Amino acid sequence: SSCPKRSSTTVHIHNCCTTCYAINTSADSFDYKSFFAKVGLTSKSPDDIKKAFAIIDQDKSGFIEEDELKLFLQNFSASARVLTDKETKAFMKAGDTDGDGKIGADEFTALVKP
Ligand SMILES: [Ca+2]
């Protein structure tokens, strides 16, 4: 089987199978815990997790806002789908521990390494 092409800006922490996972998760079935484990983020150093965070934080605001979270999977695979509103809200709720409506680097790290 062939691997989908990735853009040079995608997070290079995954292998072909995780790319396929990012593409193939069907609507409302995204589970951040299993995704982080599958792409190998959970075993990365805190520095590497912060690097991934910096890529997901596309406008470099220091936070992952809801619109950026929606495009989360596309950071891992350019051809991945956007998250549904339901998935985005559940993901945000899980990561936003201080309730300010966005996910900071420390919150993201805590989400990846609970
Ligand atoms: Ca941002």
From TrEMBL:
Keywords: Calcium, Metal-binding, Muscle protein, Repeat. Coiled coil: none annotated. InterPro entries: EF-hand-dom_pair (IPR011992), EF_Hand_1_Ca_BS (IPR018247), EF_hand_dom (IPR002048), Parvalbumin (IPR008080). It holds the Pfam family EF-hand_7. The keyword Repeat applies. GO terms for molecular function: calcium ion binding. GO terms for cellular component: cytoplasm. SMART domains: EFh (SM00054). In muscle, parvalbumin is thought to be involved in relaxation after contraction. It binds two calcium ions. Belongs to the parvalbumin family. This is Parvalbumin. It comes from Scleropages formosus.
